[in-house]
Design brief:
Elements lengths: L4 E8 H8 L10 E8 L6 E4 H7 L3 E8 L5 E14 L2 E10 L6 E2 L1 H7 L1 E4 L4 E4 L13
Parallel strand pairs: 2-7, 3-6
Antiparallel strand pairs: 1-2, 1-5, 3-7, 4-5, 5-6, 8-9
């Protein structure tokens, strides 16, 4: 299987809360569509500094990470990132990669949305066993 990408929507979750409280308008919610590499070998969502600059997620932590070429880098962790794909959504943290690095959608948010990488079609799909609503494993 080659590299597989999917277009997902990223939304600033704090803006959603502010809009629900009528502090900002719905049209002021920061959001964007991003073409992400699907990486089931990575755990989390990884965005880059360009995306972070536009969506302004709150920084909640710093983490070190080992890159594919073996380097250890320190990255900001941002919170309250809402991810949407088709009829699925989840809220998670994201690691901010330097510069304009390629964004990655990791295993944890994919599993939380109950989506799968279809190897033959080379695309992200909603789990066909649960087409209408995400289903989680509790054990």
């Amino acid at each position: 299987m080659g590299l597989v990408y999917a277009e997902i929507e990223l939304i600033n979750g704090e803006d959603i809360t502010l809009a629900k409280r009528h502090i900002i308008g719905e049209d002021e919610i920061k959001r964007m569509y991003v073409n992400t590499l699907l990486d089931s070998g990575s755990y989390n969502l990884c965005i880059n500094e360009v995306i972070q600059e536009q969506l302004q997620f709150p920084i909640v932590d710093k983490r070190s990470a080992k890159t594919a070429d073996g380097r250890i880098i320190e990255c900001d962790m941002v919170g309250n990132v809402e991810i949407r794909f088709k009829n699925r959504a989840t809220t998670c943290r994201a690691m901010v990669l330097p510069g304009n690095c390629e964004p990655l959608l990791g295993a944890i948010p994919m599993e939380d949305m109950d989506v799968l990488i279809h190897p033959q079609r080379q695309e992200l799909i909603v789990n066909p066993e649960h087409p209408y609503m995400a289903q989680m494993k509790l054990k």
